Write a sequence for this structure.
C-alpha cells in the first residue's frame, strides 16, 4: 500500500499546483470547463487573523450563501478535494451558492494561538459568528446556511443556539452528539502526522486502506493538503471537549431553531447511534435524518457514498 501511495506523489504535486487556491480574486479553470472565482476576506477576532474565503461560479452573484465548518485537527481545505466530482465546495457553487469557509483560530491558514486549549468549542462558535457577521456585511443577506463536519457539528451548533437569527438551515454531518470517552488531554497541541490524517479512511480485512471505498488519489490529495495547510501541530481545545464521558451531551439539539439535516454513515466509530436515531425527537419540524449504510466518518469522499451524500445535502438545502 505504501508503494501505491508513494507512486501517486508526483501526480499529486501536479494536481495540487493546478488546483490550490493560492491567491485572492483569481479565477480557477477546472476540467469540467466551469470557472470559479476565489476571494479572501480579512477577518480578525481577539487579535488573531482568521482565514475566510469564498468560492462561486465566476461571473455570478449568488444570493444563497453557505458556510462550511471544519472538524478537529484539520482545516477547511477538506471540503475541496478537487478530483473528479468529489469537491463539496464546487458542487455547491455549481448549484448556485457562494461557498464560504472559515478556519478556526490556530487551524490551517488562520493565525497561530499560544495556548492550544483556547480554541475550544465555544471559542470556535464565536469564530463562526465573526465569519457570519462579515458575510452578512458583505452580502446584505441576514441568514445563511451552515454545514459542519465532525467537531464542526459541535462548534456550528454552539453558534446555532446562540445566534439563531442569522441561520437559515443547518447540516450536521457526522455529528458528535456526546462524549467519546473520558480521557485527560494534557498537551495543548496535537502532533499531526500523515498516518493520523488518514485515520478516517476505511480499512480492509488485512488492515490496508480499502480502495473499493476510497480512491487512492483522494487519500493522497486529502493527506497532502493536511500536510500543506495544517502543518505539524493543531490546537487541542476541541479534543479536550470531545474526550469526556459518553453520558455528556455535546450538542444542544432542543436549542436549535433552524431546520436541520443530520447525515452520517452507519459505520462511523465516533457516533452514538442511540442518540443519532432519536435526533428528530428534539429538532424543529422539517428536519431530516439520513444514515447511509456502509459509510463511515469520511463518507463525503468515499467512492460508493459521496454522491448520496451530495444529493441529500442539496435536496435538503433546496427545499
Amino acid at each position: 500500500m505504501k508503494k501505491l501511495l508513494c507512486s501517486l506523489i508526483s501526480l499529486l504535486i501536479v494536481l495540487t499546483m493546478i488546483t490550490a487556491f493560492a491567491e485572492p480574486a483569481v479565477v480557477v479553470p477546472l476540467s469540467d470547463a466551469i470557472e470559479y472565482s476565489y476571494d479572501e476576506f480579512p477577518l480578525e477576532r481577539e487579535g488573531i487573523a482568521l482565514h475566510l474565503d469564498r468560492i462561486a461560479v465566476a461571473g455570478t452573484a449568488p444570493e444563497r450563501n453557505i458556510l462550511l465548518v471544519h472538524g478537529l485537527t484539520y482545516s477547511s481545505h477538506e471540503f475541496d478535494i478537487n478530483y473528479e466530482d468529489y469537491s463539496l465546495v464546487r458542487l455547491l457553487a455549481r448549484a448556485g451558492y457562494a461557498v464560504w469557509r472559515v478556519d478556526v483560530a490556530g487551524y490551517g491558514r488562520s493565525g497561530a494561538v499560544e495556548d492550544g486549549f483556547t480554541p475550544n468549542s465555544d471559542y470556535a462558535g464565536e469564530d463562526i459568528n465573526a465569519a457570519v457577521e462579515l458575510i452578512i456585511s458583505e452580502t446584505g443577506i441576514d441568514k445563511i446556511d451552515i454545514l459542519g463536519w465532525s467537531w464542526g457539528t459541535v462548534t456550528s451548533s454552539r453558534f446555532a443556539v446562540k445566534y439563531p437569527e442569522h441561520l437559515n438551515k443547518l447540516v450536521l454531518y457526522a455529528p458528535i452528539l456526546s462524549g467519546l470517552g473520558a480521557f485527560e488531554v494534557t498537551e495543548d497541541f496535537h502532533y499531526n502526522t500523515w498516518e493520523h490524517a488518514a485515520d478516517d479512511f476505511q480499512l480492509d480485512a488485512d488492515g490496508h486502506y480499502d480502495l473499493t471505498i476510497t480512491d487512492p488519489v483522494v487519500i493522497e490529495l486529502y493527506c497532502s493538503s493536511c500536510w500543506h495547510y495544517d502543518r505539524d501541530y493543531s490546537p487541542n481545545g476541541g479534543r479536550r471537549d470531545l474526550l469526556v464521558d459518553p453520558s455528556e451531551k455535546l450538542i444542544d439539539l432542543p436549542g436549535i431553531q433552524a431546520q436541520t439535516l443530520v447525515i452520517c454513515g452507519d459505520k462511523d466509530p465516533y457516533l452514538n447511534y442511540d442518540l443519532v436515531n432519536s435526533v428528530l425527537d428534539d429538532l424543529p419540524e422539517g428536519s431530516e435524518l439520513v444514515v447511509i449504510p456502509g459509510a463511515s466518518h469520511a463518507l463525503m469522499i468515499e467512492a460508493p457514498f459521496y454522491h448520496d451524500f451530495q444529493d441529500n445535502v442539496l435536496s435538503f438545502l433546496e427545499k
